[in-house]
Amino acid sequence: MTDTAAPTTTARHRHDAGPAVAILRGGTGEHVEDVIRVLVESGVRAIELTTNTPRWQDGIAWAVDRYGSAAAVGVGTVLEPRQLDEAAALGATFAVSPHTDPAIGERAHERGLGWYPGAATPTEIVTAWRHGARAVKVFPAAQLGGPAFLKQVLAPLDFVDVIPTGGIGVDDAADYLAAGAVAVGLGSPLVGDALRDGDLDGLRTRAERLVAALAR
Q: Is 41 a catalytic residue?
């Protein structure tokens, strides 16, 4: 992997499919496809299915087949490189981990997947970036100090693209973009109980509110 020095520009890109990444974790596996459908139809175009979600493989395959290039579909909670092989074969385009493991990064690049490793401290964030992260998952963002923490960290590290994740609510997601994030990752505050009980109406309301807030 390349040891990337800080560039002179502070221009930022957004995640491939928009500023919000929906994180699907847990549930029974029964409602995975319905949850993905509602999210994409509501305007959330980046879907992360974690490896500890029942039927995550089926969900990735279904989403890729159904939405193709209309949504970015990725795998989350990647703890071992071998998990990337299966995800890539199913059509996933990005991979997310709660930590930074260079071996996972190497395999992600070999498989053509965007790599979003987790990091918390400035040292960890720079290390992840220099190991080839497309963007660094700052985690757990809310517990680390929220947008105020992110703004302070990005003052000297303005060359790093970050996607804060963890404890971010629908109504404060835009604050993280204002603090310098290229996108935000939302799990249960967005998905709620939809993966467990199929509450799609509540999910649609939250997703539409999120998309509207991030578009301002």
A: no
